[in-house]
Amino acid sequence: MFAVHLLSFYFSKLKEDQIAKVDRFLYAMRLSDDQLLDIAARFRAEMEKGLSSESCATAAVKMLPTHVRSTPDGSEKGEFLALDVGGSKFKVLQVKVSDAGKRTVEMDSITYPTPEEIRSGKGTDLFDHVAESLKDFMQRKHINQRKQPLGITFSFPCRQSKLDEGVLLSWSKNFKARGVRGTDVVELLREAIDRLGGVDVDVLALVNDTVGTMMTCGYDDQNCEVGVIVGTGTNACYMEEMRHIDLVEGDEGRMCINTEWGAFGDDGSLDDFITDFDREIDAASINPGQQLFEKMISGLYMGELVRLILLKMTKKGLLFNSQASDALRTKGKFETKYVCAIEKYKEGLSNTKEILTSLGLDPSEQDCIAVQHVCTIVSFRSANLCAAALAAILTRIRENKRLKVLRTTVGVDGTVYRTHPQYAKRLHKVARRLVPDCHVRFLLSECGSGKGAAMVTAVAQRLVSQHRQIAETLAPLRLSRQQLRDVRDKMRVELERGLRRDTHHTASVKMLPTYVYRTPNGTERGKFLALDLGGTNFRVLVVKIRSGLRRSVRMYNKIYAIPLEIMQGTGEELFDHIVQCISDFLDYMGMKNSRLPLGFTFSFPCRQAGIDKGTLVSWTKGFKATYCEGNDVVDMLREAVKRRNEFDLDIVAVVNDTVGTMMTCAYEDPNCEIGLIAGTGSNVCYMEEMKNIEMVDGDEGRMCVNTEWGGFGENGCIEDIRTKFDREVDEGSLNVGKQKFEKMTSGMYLGEVVRQILIDLTRRGLLFRGRITERLKTRGIFETKFLSQIESDRLALLQVRAILQQLGLDSTCDDSIVVKEVCGTVSRRAAQICGAGMAAVVDKIRENRGLDNLDITVGVDGTLYKLHPHFSTSLRETVQELAPRCSVTFVLSEDGSGKGAALITAVARGLHTQ
Fold it and tell me: Which residues are in the Hexokinase C-terminal domain (predicted)?
């Protein structure tokens, strides 16, 4: 028993001594976590250089855009051909993808050799060989009946400007066919196919094997956004945000980047980690000074690296009694597959002895232990270096997404990863240790990169089909210049009809006189009370106006809510609530006993017989209070004051919010004679010549006309530009058939138009994987504020997805792009037809005044104009184009229509002195 223990101790000591001896000899290859994090940081810096247009030309890590913009979403289907070119053999595959009930992929393939004389010969011979093999495959499989979509996996660095183009940058993996570098390999293949004849294919996509791996795994796991190859060569790709890729136009969405990380260190950035053994490997390679990272990692070099180490140790008397064999001295004799066999858990030592013996060596037990440890250090360093670069990629993805913790999947392929008994486990463990804030699943690509090429082709075909269908859906909302000119001309007709006595009652634009005869001239002064009712909030204000050299307006206000049950209750309840709010405000201000002149901003269509008389024509903006339409709202307010019997009001003027906006801006800019509201509702007022207003007596001077243009189209004159989505929004509204123009332009309805489009696209399987959630079915869930947020230029698609997730919509990156496009189309149309209507108004004013050119200011208010990032620009551009003889300045109203009501009151009272 003692003898057994002694033998065991001796063997353990022997093993320990041998391991220590190898560790000392290869100390530079054993990397700590701090060193690996340093390498990861260096790789991050190289990624940045490769993505930047300023530094990409000199960057070692090329970060090549692949023009693959989407990973599979599971809806792909069809039959595809694929070529997998990248080694001493290549594959031709037929891939059938189905999503009928359950997603399946069927593959059939034939492997063809690529002889060394073809790999090293003329480029035309190489591509002729590929074309002939493709033809042979199609004839054998009887698939020449119709044109076949084809994807190519081409496992060499290519610069792509589109998905079906790739200019070869350099050969690797012992390929060196002449006349190919700097040439589009897709075009070379097409030319070879044309020379051969009898092959009817449509080459849709060229991808790297790494991209193919990511796409293959992405079909099975839609969280897969990284691909890694560790085989004959090594490389990685990942999905990068478009806004970071300087070499490709556009900021929307993501694109797969082929890092070509094998060249990491070619610029000297890894010199302190490169050993003398690595330098010897490099010097003896067919591409000295290139692909240095790959030469430290990949299967093409791993066995040779071990051979050089063993030969050096032998020469130093550390192995084989200093006796090296001819095989050990011969380049390439120690294959990487030997490393895999030597590191097997149980058979490792016996495999080592057998392999070394086959190489003409006579190894001792000590030698076998040492050789096994050399293999472990070399392969472990390979896994460590891969893990460090992968950690850099994962950290970048996490930071791009602004996540504390990233959950993602890495698709992996390659003979080293597949066949080495310890490699995958080591890579996983080290990568997870380096990035604890990334929860990573590693998924082995079961079907190779050929399936990936087919999946890229399938995704490309799906996206082309989806884009076409989405474009067709949105086409009716994208108005031509002629359609906008028609809107302008029809608006002009309705403006004229609304002003004439004989057509006023049938005009869709009511052109309501406001009895406001002029804009402020700067002499107004005094203290006024103002009320502002136009939505779910109601404001009560005290406004102090000072004239003279130091003109100023000071305001004090409180905001009160109008509950839905009040908005849609009785008129008496509504006005009693308003008076209660006024009472609270007067108490708050200590003004219960004051009787100030009051202006009432009432932002609903009213027919006025005087400045202080306003008969409600119809409710808008969700109000439905009964017994109000057809009644004078000033009288209703006075009756409510009497019922409360606490205070009295001196109601001087009732005005629309549009008129209030014009008056507010005119106080600062005397050239302001138009008011525009682009918010919850949409409306315009302007100063019209009295002689044109047939509904009011008198021909001298001007009067402000409240157009109430939200009703434009109620007589059917704009049916040609209304879409099925507009009709669905109208049918679901409280006032079916009314305010048709407003329902195409205002904040209250734009979100609902978007929701209807999203439902349509989802129903057709073009969005949200075809799943219509209960939230998406809910009317009003897509508020217009989301359009403003989603269309912000500063908003990353990740944040768009977050907004959609708030709405219960589980979106992909592609979904986010589509939603943003829908929002942009709807809001742009709204701004453009607003602009067309405004062009009609300003041109009418110009003609009224007999001017060749008009210089005028428009006062604007409303959340849509204020908050939407592009609405105001589109509006201005449209007015400029459709009214070229009018110079129109838009001024934002900063103080709201409450100030306007006070100014109208001041103007109406003629208070030039106090």
Answer: 226-459, 673-907
